[in-house]
Amino acid sequence: MIKPQASKPQPRTTRSANRREHSSASWAALAVLLCSSFGPAIAHAQISLATIVDQAQRNSSAVKLATADVRKAQALFAQSKDVYIPNLIIGSSIGPPSIGFPVNQPSIASATMQSLAFSYPQRQYIAAAMAGINGASLALKDAREQVALDASTNYIELDTVNRELQAAHDQAEFSDRLIKIEQERSEAGIDSVSDLLQARLTAAQLKLKLLHLQARAGSLVAELATLTGLPASTIVTDPASIPQIPDVKDDAIPTSAIEAAQAQAKSRQLQAHGDELATKIRPQIGFGAQYNRDATSLNNYNLYYGKAGQKLKADSFGAGFSIQIPIFDLMHRAKARESSAEALRATVEAEQAQRQNDVQIATLTGNLRELDAVAEVASLKQQIAGEQLKAVQSQLAYGNGAGTDPGAPPQLSPKAEQLARIDERQKQVDAIDAGFDLTKVRLNLLRALGHMDEWLKTLSTDPASASAAVSTGAETRGAVKPQ
Fold first, then answer.
1. Which end of the chain is less crowded, N or C, counting CB atoms within 10 A of the terminal residue's CB?
2. Are 310 and 296 contacting, i.e. CB atoms less than 8 angstroms apart?
3. Residue 147: inside a domain, yes or no?
4. Which residues pair with 288 in a beta bridge?
5. How many domains are there within the chain?
């Protein structure tokens, strides 16, 4: 018989290595467990309304275009002022000797400075450029407000649809119970087949409504993902981040869009006035200076211009002012007529924007009053449906107290409870819909009255939502919650 050999004791270094490997494996298993435990919570973290608005403004093409217009206006303003600052240009005109009479100045290096010293039209151009910056800045503000309005409306509607989905799921459960009850009553001969079919029709209608809500929720998520640039899987609404919309006041202030149109009209008017002044008999003074380093060894300048036995000097410098007075200039006159027509068009567009905004305010104010009444009616219907449900449940539990005398109303069946539950949830959905319609009109009216920016300032930063947005790889300043 072969005896098993006794195992040799392992070296101390091997035992230490085994302990380290076991410890590393334990920590790795713990890390995997923690990631699996908190991963879904991080993946489905809620994103606040302000984060959505901020990301939408960062990602918006309209905002980027408006920002580019602001930079262009700033560059035009700098250009209109810099004409008074002398520029400096250096160059050289080295070349082979000319044949015959010299045709160019024999400078191997030259420096030229020139600027505008005085001009009546230029002051108008500078003022027009300043008004253009103001108009572009207001247009940028208007673009940001419009993006914020679109993002806020979609976000609030998504939150509304999510609440309606919860009620629709409850209705689906109630309709399934109703079908089961009707199936049993039909088999027992208490109810007819038509009652069972009616219950199935109700369930089918509720299923169709549920599918419609799910499709609408998916569409809103896709729209928000397109607006913000965030992954659609990370867009989960946070109802607590939606601030209360204040009561709409009657005092209207000019919106950013109207102020931008008025500023652009003023800029066009100043531009037209400057072009008109350019046609008047008024002087325009300019300053100029030039230095040349000449060389006559590569040309024949001394042959034609040098005195006998004397060469031309190598250095030459000149400076002075130039005065121009327009006497007859058809081109600038036509330019002035063009600028005047553009100014008239911009003025009319600003007036038209004001009138359209006034009409929108009147329309939204009427809609707000009507929807406020609709929301009140829907709320009362929901409360009535809730009380009716309680009455049905009470009768099912204790009876209706009519007894079994002839002519007494029959006792309620279990299907009455399910029908009451379905109706109560439907009234709840109607109330939610009416509330969203009222919210949407209030937001649009706030923007039309010029108070949209005040509502946006009620948002504050929430670090938790910000970290969730940053974890998706998107550039986010932070999420928010209502103050």
1. N
2. no
3. yes
4. 114, 320
5. 1
How many percent of the chain have pLDDT more than 70?
77
Residue with tokens 């050289």: 92
Residue 477 lies in a domain: no
178 lies in a domain? yes
- Cα dist. 320→83, 115, 179, 287, 469 in Å? 17, 11, 101, 6, 63
Query: Is residue 161 situated within a structural domain?
Result: yes
What domain range is 237 assigned to?
119-282+326-400+412-472
CB 420 within 8 A of CB 399: no
Between residues 82 and 482, which one has the greater pLDDT?
82
Kindly report the CATH number assigned to the domain that includes residue 433: 1.20.1600.10
CA-based torsion, 62, 63, 64, 68: positive or negative: positive
Closest CA to 412 of 389, 395, 427, 428: 395
Phi, psi of 90 (to 5 degrees): -115, 150
- The encoded tokens of residue 178 equal 């109703």
Highest mean pLDDT among 65-79, 299-313, 414-428: 65-79
Cα separation of 419 and 191, whole Å?
A: 15
**What is the pTM (predicted TM-score) of this model?**
0.78
